[in-house]
Amino acid sequence: MTLLGPNGAGKSTILKMLSGEIEPQEGAVAIFGAPQGPEARRRIGLVLQEPSTDDLMTLQETLELHGRLFGLPRRELGRRCDEILDDLGIGERGEDRCETLSGGLRRRLDIARALLHCPDLLLLDEPTLALDPDSSTAIWRTLHERAADGVAIVVCSNDTVEAEANADRVVIISEGRILAEDSPRNLTAGLKRDALELDWSSPTDDELSNLSAWPGVGDVHRFHDSLHLTVDHSAEIVPQLFQQYGSRITGIRIRESSLRDAWFQIVGRPLNGESVVPASQP
Amino acid sequence: MMGVAGASLALLQRDLRAVARSRSQLYSSVLFPLMLMALLGVGVSSGLEPTSPRILDGDYTSFLAPGMIAMTALFSSTFSSAGFYRDRESGLLRALLASPHSARTILFGKALSAILIGSLQALAILVLAVVIPGIDLAWQFGWLGGVATVVATVLALSFMLSGLSLLLALRVKTMQGFHLIFNLVLFPLFFLSGAFFPLDQVPGWLEVIGYVNPLTYAVDLLHYASYADSPDGLIGPLIDGLVLGGLALVVFALGLSRAPKAV
Predict the structure, then answer these.
(1) Could you tell me if A57 and A169 lie in one domain?
(2) d(CA B80, CA B114)
(3) Residue of A21, A61, A68 lying closest to B262 (CB–CB)
(4) Domain containing A31: what range?
(5) Using one digit for the tens of pLDDT, what is the confidence trace for B166-223?
(6) How far away is chain B from the Cα of A239, in angstroms, using its nearest Cα?
(7) Residue A24 domain-assigned?
(8) Quick one: closest CA in A to B2, which residue?
(9) Cβ distance of B7 and A113 shorter than 8 Å
(10) Prediction ipTM score
(11) What's the pLDDT band for B230 if we cut at 50, 70, 90?
């Protein structure tokens, strides 16, 4: 499950409540039906938003400390550490100090630590943020393997592409409220085939309602000086747009509809300013 | 199921390893008191020729030695708290708190590490004071009882300072702020503890401050046990022990009781 939302939406707060770091102001948290507490935490693996390792410790020592705090038997601990480091492709670095690791490798170590005690629930706060593609791929591969083993995985993210590619369910959160929850397929099912983002100086209500009435055009949303709409066939609609409103359009982005567009349709604005990318000039 | 003891042992091993790898901290904690004894001790002994009856034979270096043991415990607790801030800033502390153990258990384990490391470093100064020629520790009640008293005093002092560090670190968000408070409060208290000059030789107002200073009781016990400037010390071993032991228990318990879920 991916909790999808912009920075400040409340994703990390939800994760902190699930992990027991903070208590909800209202209601209660239950982990597999049990209240939050030591036994619940034993079943949780947590990956924080920032790397959380001590530079002076080696990778092996980092995992051993964690394993001992989770009560893993000593004879099993060494073998588990080796296995998990190998799984994440950092087996050869076991004796290196954490200060020698790149950001991507530190992230893998965080995930190795969270998986070490074989949790039933894995909570990850933006696990692939600012990582190189190799590290991201290694991390998602490991997470998919664990999900196949029956581990419940909750990921906080503001990356619609990753959420669409990896999540079974997506929870759309904005300003602390859940606005939608479904599979990526269902969330995008109502969209037309193509998505258009138009840079449009001060779009009027009349222009919006005119566009909405065009055949082959889905919902039209306005956000500052831009319009977002999904259409059946961009190849047919775009020439008509320029024919009728060419003087009003200063930029256009065309792509296949995706979760990113479902987000725009549901929330009414782009996720983390996604539309502020350089526009192709007409 | 791993209990408090197991978690504390795991944290202790980790912190001992960290100190062993932080060579500069290790060396400075031993070298600084030695340097003070060598420079200040010899300088005052020969330059000012102290005549106080509490400074036996005018030998200021030997008079300083018990105070330097207390100072090492004090500095070490500061360094240990720096480790607390380092763990908080690196995010490791949050990761530790996500374990099945309560925040109190984790902080207890870290405080025990600080106590052990601080005590070992302070006792290293005792060993050096014993072996360095020119420092004359007169174990007036025999070395066995004297060493046992020093060890107990250092442990109690470390407990108290560790509790105090915990109280401060849980409230003061930055390491700079922590050091500022430590320097503003603890350094003056240390100077007025009898470590550098006998408190019964100072003006009355200063002596009063000395008597309400918790560190005074530790320094007095150390003098009593190892230096023998008087058969009863300045205050008396019974009162010293009761005050120091009581404060150690109260401050340490207070520090742990304030442990929040998230730090």
Answers:
(1) yes
(2) 5
(3) A21
(4) 2-186
(5) 888 888 888 888 888 878 888 888 888 988 888 877 888 888 888 899 999 999 999 8
(6) 54
(7) yes
(8) A71
(9) no
(10) 0.80
(11) low
